[in-house]
Structures are given as structure tokens and as C-alpha cells.
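Below is the record:
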Amino acid sequence: MKILLQKAIGIVSIIITSTAFSGELTTPNTFSSGTKAVASEVNANFTAVETEVDDNAGNITSNATNIGINVNNISISAGNISTNSANISINTDNIDTNDVNISSNSAAITAKQNRVTGTCVAGQTIRTINDDGSVICEAGLDRSEDICLLFNTLNVQYSLGLAVPDYCTCVSENIYATESISISYPDVAGNIYRDNLVRAYNHPTGDCGSGTPCDITGWLEFDLTSIPDSASISTMTIYAYATTVFGAPTVRVQYSNGNNWVRDSVTQSDLPRTNVQVSNTVVPIFDAYNAFPITISTQDWSEDLIDNSLTLGLDNTNLEYTYSYFTGSDNPDSNGPYVEITYCN
């Protein structure tokens, strides 16, 4: 028994020495060589050792769990580091691109034209603006005629109702016909009616003298001497007094480039029906002036202004037997035909 107790005391001493070295175990009893060891004290030391061992086992288990968690966190962090590295690479490329754009914008700002600081004296216009903002001047050009023409064209063609500039002189004038005649088309004989009636006549089954249907256009000539050659015509309307209306004729205005003619000698070839699209059709009213508004954009009127002669005809487009007669040019004061022209110059 003495020998066994001494061995036990030695084992405890080894454990105590090892535990003390680690600094994690404190035993309640200390034994000296040659002294008796009380069993209860030895057991108390064993109990202390057992408690510390159990605690260490628990800590080892807990540490193992924490190590597993840390390993997983390290893996996640490694993935985040890889993603951040890619983002850093992209951001680096974007920074390089921005540097290039900043350089380009700086060059553009440097090369931009400065604010215009130069001026021209009255009567001159700016021809060139230099990079430093100075200007090169030239003698001014009078563009009022072009501007007036622009305003008139826009107003007439698009009905914009623009206010015409004050320097555009616009005049409305009534010009009575100086000549009138009625001619059959396409009759090769060119039957001509040289009286004082302007006929808008159509008879598809009739015979005007050469076995062909009757298609008669009544022509009017107007003297445009009073209108400047450079004028811009903005509106034009023919007024013709109907003395006879049969059926429901649909009468439109035709244009002819045959000018400066007289009733006594004019022929069919002198008055070709050049343009049949200068107005919409109108059904005439008997014993009244009938207005035929002309679409200005359908024709270039400059040649008529230059040669001071305008020829317009009244033609019946109804293919049934219908007609209308209008007063001719002989007596302007007795319901004579006239054209109302508004022009600007």
C-alpha cells in the first residue's frame, strides 16, 4: 500500500508539474517527500486535474468549430478579394478612359471660338468671324426684296398669316381685261368666236364645225405694266360676270404662255392651254360676278411681269353638256372681267 501511494503521489506530481507549466491548472494540495499523503487530499488533486482536463476538452471542441467557421470565412474573403481585384481592374480602365476624355475636352475647350467681340459700322454686314472673336466686315446687301418674297411665299403657300415687315410695300390692284376671245380645243380648225363673250363650254357629243366635240375655253388678257417686274405676287383672283349658265358647269382658270395678242388676229396655236391647274373649279352663279381664286404656287409669274402681259382662261371641266358665258373685255364699266392682284415689292 505504501508503494502504491508513493507511485500515485509521483503521477500527480508529474501532472501537476506539466499542468503548472502550461499555467492552466491549480491543485489544492502540495505534497513533500517523506511525508504522508492523505487520500482525501490526493483525491482533491485528482478532481482538480479532472476538471481542468474536461474544460480543455470542451475548449478543444469549441476551437475546432471556430476553426471550421474561420476556414469558411477565409474562403468567402478570398472570393471577395478576387471580385474586388476585378473591380479594381475595371475602375482602373475607366480612370484611363476618363483621362483620355478629359484630355480631349481640354483640347476642345482650348480650340473653341471665343465670344464674338468685333462689330461692323452701320451699313456693313459681318462676313467672317475669326477664332479670337474679331470679325471681317463687308458692305451690306439690301436683302429686303428677298425677305418680302419669303414672307409672301410662306403666307400664300402655307397660310401662316405672318406679319409682313414694314419695309415690304404691298399693293392690291384691280386690272381689267384688255382682250377676250373664245377658242375651241382640240378642234384642228380652231373655231374662234371673236365676239364679246367669254365661253366656258363643253358638249361631248356636239359639233363645233369639224366633227369634233365642243371644248371651248374663253381667254382674257391683262396688261401688267403697272406692276414692277421685281414684284412678288401674293394673291390673284379673277372676277367674271356670268350672263348665261346652262346646267352645272364646273369652271376653272387656265394659264397660257401666249401673250400680247389681239382678238382680231389671234389663232388657236397662239394660245396653248399651257397649265390647267392654276385654280380649283367653281360652279358659276347667273347674273353675278363670280370669283376664281388662283393658286399662286402653281405658276412662275415672273415672265408675265417682264413682258407686261398675263393670259388666263375660263374652262368648263364638266364632261356633260354644260356651259357658262361671261362678259368680255369690250366694256370694262359694264360688268367687265378683271383680275385683283396683291403684290409686294
